[in-house]
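User: Here's a chain of 128 residues. Predict its fold as C-alpha cells.
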Amino acid sequence: MSLFSPPEMDRIRREIVSGPGNVLITFRNMHGPTALRRMWMDFVAEIGAPLRCVSWWSSSGNIGLIECELENNLTVYGQWALADSNELVGVFRIDDEEIADIRDGFESGNVTSFVMRTIRIGETQDRD
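Assistant: Prediction complete.
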C-alpha cells in the first residue's frame, strides 16, 4: 500500500525537482503511527536518500509532522491530519522562517503559518 496515489506522486515530484531547500507536503492520513512511518519511509526512499528523519505528534494525536533530510540538500516535511482516508492536501516550497512558525504553532490554538492553517482547515473542513 502506498501513501500517495500516482497522480499525487507526480505532483510531489514536480516540486521536489526544483532543487534544494524545504518542501512541505500536507495530507490526510488514516493510518496509525507504525504504518504511517513505514509508508512515509518508503515514499521518501522513492524521492531521495534519507539521511535523518524525525516524527512529532500533537498531544491529541490527530495531527503530526514528519521531517526528513535527504542527501540532495532537500528537507521534506510531511504534515498530516488523522482522517478516514488518505489524501494529498498541498505541496509547498517553504523557507526556514516558515518552518519555525510551523513548529511554534504545532500545539498552539493561534496559527500564524499559512501552511499550518492549511492543515488545520483540512482537519476541520473550515473555510476562511
